[in-house]
Amino acid sequence: MxxxxxxxxxxxxxxPVFTVPVPADAQVMVGRGAARGAAPRRPALTPREENRLIExxxxxxxxxxxxxxxxxxxxxxxxxxxxxxxxRERLERETAVVERLTAKRDRRS
Length: 109
Description:
Elements: H1 2-14, H2 23-30, H3 47-72, H4 78-108
Helix pairs in contact: 3-4
């Protein structure tokens, strides 16, 4: 009889403990880590877009300087006068690129 009691006791102690989580525990476990259903954040701009933004910003500064120099000249040459519409048009295009990429970057970050 003693050996049966020892065998049952050793079997009971060797059995792993199984627990079933109650709904409250399950809710806590689900809440760990990132929020459910949230898509991973994509980078604001691709490297190519970042480079294009930098190039457009540089172009805007250069074009603004060129336009300011021509407008500041006391007597601009006819060639300089002819360049102004083209410079302003390029400035508008580059400014549009800067605004578009900046808005995209700000929207995603």
